[in-house]
Amino acid sequence: MATIYDVAKKAGVSPKTVSRVINGSRHVREETKNKVLEAIRELDYYPHAIAKSLKKKITRNVGYVVPYGSDFVFRDPGQLEQLKGAHNVLTGEDYNLILSVPNNGREALFEVNRLLKHREVDGLILYAMEGVETLAKDFEEKGLPYVSLGKCYPEQEYNFVEIDSPSGGYLATKYLLSLGHRRIGFITEPARFLAPAKESMIMGCMKAYAEEGLEFPHHLVLEGDYTVSFAEQATGWFLSKDPRPTALFCASDPMAWGLMRGLRKKGLTPGVEIDLLAGDDLPFTRVLEPELSAVNSRLHELGAEAAEMLLVILRKKQETGTRTKIPGRYLRSELVIRGTTTGRSVQRETAGFHR
Amino acid sequence: MATIYDVAKKAGVSPKTVSRVINGSRHVREETKNKVLEAIRELDYYPHAIAKSLKKKITRNVGYVVPYGSDFVFRDPGQLEQLKGAHNVLTGEDYNLILSVPNNGREALFEVNRLLKHREVDGLILYAMEGVETLAKDFEEKGLPYVSLGKCYPEQEYNFVEIDSPSGGYLATKYLLSLGHRRIGFITEPARFLAPAKESMIMGCMKAYAEEGLEFPHHLVLEGDYTVSFAEQATGWFLSKDPRPTALFCASDPMAWGLMRGLRKKGLTPGVEIDLLAGDDLPFTRVLEPELSAVNSRLHELGAEAAEMLLVILRKKQETGTRTKIPGRYLRSELVIRGTTTGRSVQRETAGFHR
DNA sequence: CTGTTAGCGCATTCAT
DNA sequence: ATGAATGCGCTAACAG
């Protein structure tokens, strides 16, 4: 394969001039430029990206590390939305995204070292997880660029983007209460998937009850695991309560699908005998039947925002050689009302339709 | 950040010795080795991956190019299975996967150049697509390692892995015919997503009819687009036929979900009033309701196999400097019978249950 | 506007 | 068993 020297020789100029042409410097005579271009074409020359990297000390690669294994990422539509958001932004700026999906925290630390310390990547998008705190602080100290999805530690003020789960829970619960519901069943985020400092949606749910001066139904709260099958099984648990809940709210869409399936098996239709509110509002869900009311978590934006933040840091570092900190950002959820929250289950009850 | 020279100086040896220690050469005295290791630890030294790449002329990156845009990849569970299969194998061998999702063939050619000719990657997994032929042949000529998902051109004999769609269609149709079905509705793969040389499943469907000496219902064939919504709409078209089909078979799982939704809206239950056979058997589908009978396309294996093949080529090239060709491989689909194919719709009919 | 020179950080002959 | 010197292919000072 041709090198820049071959091109230089063929065009009868110096390597530096070839470099100038390639990198679009204006200080080249039109005629020289054309000679060079011609030589490049004839030799089918492409600059060696690695050599360039070594010289410029940037790779144009960004690592994306999620510590829960490849099934978790590739088969969870919510994860994929985040990933897609980041990927879109990054590739739009000619960065490659290197996805790493270690199985646990220990392996994740290893991966992060491999990528960042060996300088395979310029920066990192990092899933907040148990045990990541020391790592994050190490990066900060060393000036290694990263942005985390969720806070890595409670006092973290910069370089993270996080879903405001409590506010989502608050929004959802407030709404369900306004429909007249009092006994709401909740499935929360799995504790092990919560970022070290991330607060659960359940805090918001409790706040909504408190504001109305109502007692929170602690006995109707289940910790979920984000899977369809778990939620399906949980349906039985909720329905076995007496009196049973008139509405269910869960922390993710896949769990809502599970609830839906569970309810259907018991002959209950969401929006009729019982209300159902989902927790992500994924694009995929919108195409399913029936149309789920949901709290929109804006996961795509979350990933995109993380990437944007990282790009700002990277650009600053490259252009001025200085470190930047960007204030952490919370994304507020939005309520999307569709067919599965009608309040009819409450009306029935007040009308005496117990069963 | 420390370099190999810093380590050498600190340990009182030459850079070469440090290199030997790092790369596990046996020709180092235990004592020297320990000194070096100690220095590495103290300096928190990590070898610079880019510099190493430049020297060794390998990147340990593999490109994965799919030319239909990021929605197509990140939101189609079938695509994700292939990707996951490849990702698993590649990362298992310490390769990074660089995903590129250009929007069309023209951009794809550009991407492929960017990745391979600029040597950002050692090799490529390439989605077969219209217009890829010249590119593939160019790679072969230049000895650039690639494996394609699907054939890039009809005569391609090597370095591809492909789903044997016709055999899947044959299997599916043979089975449905054995249940007594005669009027089967088909939704095929979208022509634009077919690899240049890939044959449609419909060839196999026709063959199955021919073998039984039955006339193929050409009027019941629709070209799909792999989306849920298309299939949902198609349901009406199928049901408007008189007499209407007693079974439906489509080329992908998402389309089967669409059919299911369409049927349910018309009050028809798959497996009861009409049989339904899906086309991928994705893990995700297995968790949905009702449980879909399907032709298992083994997409995860497809991606994994492509990666394995590429690794063989890469290893050979690295170890011996020679090019290798691996005979193309077809993956045969398997039939997975669950709840949505029972033949009851045919029995009803023969019993006089027209409606 | 253009060329010379040096060096990014590593691995690798060829010595010893 | 270890070291000195060279170069991978490129860009960037510094001249001119």
Task: Outline the low-pLDDT stretches of chain A.
Answer: none
What is the succession of H and E elements of chain A? HHHHEHHEHEHEEHEHEHEHEEHEEH
Number of domains of chain A: 3
Largest sheet of chain A: 6 strands, parallel
Give the averaged pLDDT of chain A, no decimals: 91
CA-based shape of chain A? elongated
Number of helices of chain A: 14
User: Which percent range describes the beta-strand content of chain A?
Assistant: 5-15%
Q: Share of helix among residues of chain A?
A: 40-55%
The span between the termini of chain A is: 78 Å
State the largest interface. A-B, 46 and 46 residues
Number of strands of chain A: 12
| Helix/sheet category of chain A | alpha/beta
CATH architecture of the largest domain in chain A: 3-Layer(aba) Sandwich
Quote the CATH topology of the largest domain in chain A. Answer: Rossmann fold
Q: If you compute it from the alpha carbons, what radius of gyration of chain A comes out, rounded to the nearest whole angstrom?
A: 26 Å
